[in-house]
Amino acid sequence: MNSGSVWNLLSQFGDIISKVDHLLCEHDVDTEIVRAKLTLTDGSSLRVSESLIDGQLVSYSYYWLNGNNDLIVGWDNAPHHRNIETFPHHKHVKKQTSVRTSRERCLKDVLSFIHGILEE
Fold this sequence. Notes:
Layout: H1 3-12, E1 17-27, E2 31-40, E3 45-53, E4 56-65, E5 71-76, E6 90-93, E7 99-101, H2 107-118
Antiparallel strand pairs: 1-2, 2-3, 3-4, 4-5, 5-6, 6-7
């Protein structure tokens, strides 16, 4: 995902994103790193970190925090919860120790999930 693609995706969710801070897209020959902090319209934030190889998402973490920086939901695919049905994809709900299965596996999925919550 190049910086243009990131901006296109973020613009699709402009009704819930009030500010984009620290957008970083680093490129190497076949590797790309994307990092960002998104401030959402309710005062919460989403911390984004993605690594892509040859355009394929290989690792990610998306941490949605409230205005006090307390965890709402954090998604990642670090391979350390082998007992989870969707291994390595999982999410942490309200605290790091509350690990659950996750169907959200990319930034678009996560933004769609958050959009659904904020639009309720």
